[in-house]
Amino acid sequence: MQTIPAENIPATGSLQIRVGDSVIDEATIAGEMQFHPAASHDVAARAAARALVIQELLRQRAMMLDLHNDAHTAPDDYYPGESDIAQMLDRELQVPDPDEDACRRYHAHHPERFCEPPQYRVRHILLAAAPDDAEGRDRQYRQAGKLVKSLAKQGERFTELAQRHSSCPSRDQGGELGWLQPGQTVSELDRALEHLPTGLHDRPLASRYGWHVVCVDERREKLALPFDAVRDRVVRELTEQATRMALRHYLLALEAEIGVEGFSLDDDAMDGSLVR
């Protein structure tokens, strides 16, 4: 990161953030913004400034600890890299291991986080039409509606009609998609499957690919897993939470010790802003 000794900065009135004896100027913040896309310029600029402040605090702390001796590098040539910062944090962050009681309480209070996802055994017939083909989509919708009406009376014809009409490769299996979990099919169908009951859906469902005649043959609802089956996941989540909290306290302590002007880490969420 480019920093400039404070005494060499002209008083231009532009945005400047001081971290110890270094200044992060407006141009540096602008260059960092490409790594922090956001809905507005101000939000992106603040995220970029936060990341630069954190990086500079960590750099200066590494210099205080004389890490260049560990790197066998002359002091004047040393600039802490990501591996140096990671080693420093391993040394300095105090992250307690979660005990058994804490893990069991967390599991009991957050059962939704430790579940088998729902599953759906699905068949479909795709009547293909491009999103920008209004005429084609209207035509295929009418055709899909006819198929729904026909299948409502003669459900045993699903395989035949899928092989005749579907544009999906699953037509060779009679429209069978097998067991699906959330995230395994196109997002429009994914959202619908969460709520569809078993059986033939009574109207075509739209997606970017066209219209789908959908039959849910079987559902397996979300199933909460016992603690012993997810112990490692619980420990990992609690450790990650404790690490984030320890890192926040560590950075706030560095901010107070080294000194930051023009920005306050205490006003912002710092998770994920550590080192690019």
From TrEMBL:
Keywords: Isomerase, Rotamase
Enzyme Commission number(s): 5.2.1.8
PROSITE patterns from the UniProt entry: PPIC_PPIASE_2
Record field: catalytic activity: [protein]-peptidylproline (omega=180) = [protein]-peptidylproline (omega=0)
InterPro entries: PPIase_dom_sf, PPIase_PpiC, PrsA_foldase
Gene3D superfamilies, A to Z: 3.10.50.40
Gene Ontology molecular function, alphabetical: peptidyl-prolyl cis-trans isomerase activity
Matching PANTHER family: PEPTIDYL-PROLYL CIS-TRANS ISOMERASE HP_0175-RELATED, PEPTIDYLPROLYL ISOMERASE
Family: Belongs to the PpiC/parvulin rotamase family.
Name used for this protein in its record: peptidylprolyl isomerase
